[in-house]
Amino acid sequence: MxxxxxxxxxxxxxxxxxAAASIAxxxxxxxxxxxxxxxxxxxxxxxxIDSAVQQANEQIRSRDITPPAPxxxxxxxxxxxxxxxxxxxxxxxxxxxxxxxxxxxxxTNLAKENGMTLSQFADALRSEGTDYLTVREQIRDExxxxxxxxxxxxxxxxxxxxxxxxxxxxxxxxxxxxxYRLQHILxxxxxxxxxxxxxxxxxxIESIRTRIVEGGESFESIxxxxxxxxxxxxxxxxxxxxxxxxxxxxxxAAAALEVGGVSEVIEAGGGFHLIKLIERQGGDQRQSxxxxxxxxxxxxxxxxxxxEQSRTLAxxxxxxxxxxxxxxxxxxxFSDDPGSKNNGGDLGYNPxxxxxxxxxxxxxALAPGELSEPFSTQFGWHIVEVVDRRTRDVxxxxxxxxxxxAIKNRRVAEEYDSWSRRLRAEAFVEYRIASDRPPEAAAKDxx
Length: 447
What we know:
The protein has helices at 3-8, 11-16, 46-62, 70-93, 100-113, 118-127, 132-152, 161-170, 195-213, 219-226, 248-255, 307-322, 327-334, 357-364, 395-426, 439-446; strands at 35-39, 42-45, 179-188, 237-242, 266-268, 271-281, 288-299, 346-350, 375-377, 380-393, 429-431.
């Protein structure tokens, strides 16, 4: 992949969307394509694999890591492509469709993050020979995968207050506030594995640890070549994560490591793991937040009132408030917000981030006692009056919120891995190119 494309698209998008059609320059000669792998009722073309391998190679080299042998990298990339294919197929079967309007919104925001309009973003890609339409479909696939993941994985995870209490009790009332950046190597264990295969997998990861700790080999390079983890092509980099969001065994091991240290072999979650501590941050500190108490009137368009009519009504109400009428009285009569209407539009005290961005921005710009001009959000037209502001110590609340989110993130990650393995195991996968066939597939066919 070329330099501009790497700059424009963050690694999280690239690694999740390797299932691309050819991203070769338009002027390059196009060889005869062929089906490399059949996945359920879909296919992966040889050109897709070649292009994704090229992308992965350039990503790896951009981090000053020596890529693994071509056949090893191809296997890792093909495994990723198959997983993406079965997940997008699952999304389609569930009726998930990403329409062009949604897709354009995401692309427009991505362009803005890089200081461009959508048109400039597309031109920048094309100028380096990258197929803009291919990028669109990559991101459409990622959005579909995120949506099916949210529905079938995240939507099923609940964290109760008793879960938070139990975690804090196990920590003697204090949570580990540290954050860790870890690299990870996984040797996965499939369902129904024999004792001999388990022993062989254990011996393999022990050998990998020896190669790293005693032989001085690169953890990243080995992760790329041999890890079964979702972040293998990123050198096993898990990013910076709160201790509570890590699997318990990882958090315990990380707490005992010095920066640069490699853990002993960890057996958890259907596999054998190694982690390396890259960075540690954090520690206990008091937290406070400025909360704003505001009142508002919401005028929403409906079947009998257009957006323009709603805007006109909001302007009329604003003029009446400026002339001396109480916002609370007009809110009780006119507001379409059922949550605050009966309280005179009172929203209570809220910390930053509780409101939609436009509302939050307008409210934050007001001093206590000040009234906004009418403005619109996706909910309709608003008039906001700030009543008061206060600073509140939220250390304990923040700790509980952090623990709650971390427990959920941990459970989501574990369930997502399980869900992905299940989809892959249930999929019909036929390798049409002999050199791509993994040993287990060849052995199965031989029987």
